[in-house]
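Write out this protein's structure.
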Amino acid sequence: MQLLWGTSDNVVRPSVATIGFFDGVHRGHRFLIEQVRDIATTRNLASSVITFPVHPRKVMHPDFHPELLTTCDEKVALLADVGLDYCIMLDFTPELAHLSAKQFMTILKENYRIEALVIGHDHRFGHNRSEGFEDYVRYGQELGMEVILARAYSNDGIMVSSSVIRRLLSEGNASDAGDCLGYPFFLDGTVVGGYHVGRKISFPTANLRVNDAEKLVPADGVYAVYVFVGGQKYAGMLSIGYRPTLNNGTDRSIEVHIFHFDANIYNQPMRISFVRYTRPELKFNSIEELIEQLHKDAAEVKVILS
């Protein structure tokens, strides 16, 4: 896949395209992209997605803080895996937001050689939000660009959208979120120093500092996870929260106990891949009660990951 940042210089082939923010590149997105690829193959055209590096709502409302399923780099990596020819990354600016749908489609046609645009019936773009699919079809006919209605995606009757997946993760439902995404939700970051209490109670942990502050962090609690560090995959038990038994205060931590692991990985990149939520964060009356619960948690997580 060729990534184009706001330039049409390298678009050498006319293409079939779709447009969206594609946060998470979930199953619904992939179903849409498959349609783009199929149409492109049939017509001997390239396949493209048109997307943005920053959430459009943040551009229009600077106080808005998105909780992203994927950072821009993660999104590009996921899009590259679905077999597209081009990913056209447009800077979403106030000027772009104020273009009419027809003006925007004219840019796509003239600057990026988009011959056909595949969109859902309820998709809206351009400053006039009252315009819809029939209007886009009419503009396309005037421009020589076909506008094609995408088939809707259904996951056993379950609505799949980025907002639904965010809600599932905010509830701790990592397994259903992963099913909607089509892959386990993950956090990328760097291993940083912690309080070193875990090692004293025989449950040493690696503390993760997430790379992007706008990346969504799932609900507080304990999770069965896989950990990717140093080019290897390990089973692990993750805790997100404020460590109330240890009086951690207002510092929210993301710490993982990696099974059968004792290497020094400070300052190394690490990915945590979520499998299943096991319990909420709890406050125990003593360190002994906490240790007893951690042994139960470890036994449960090992069964889940076995």
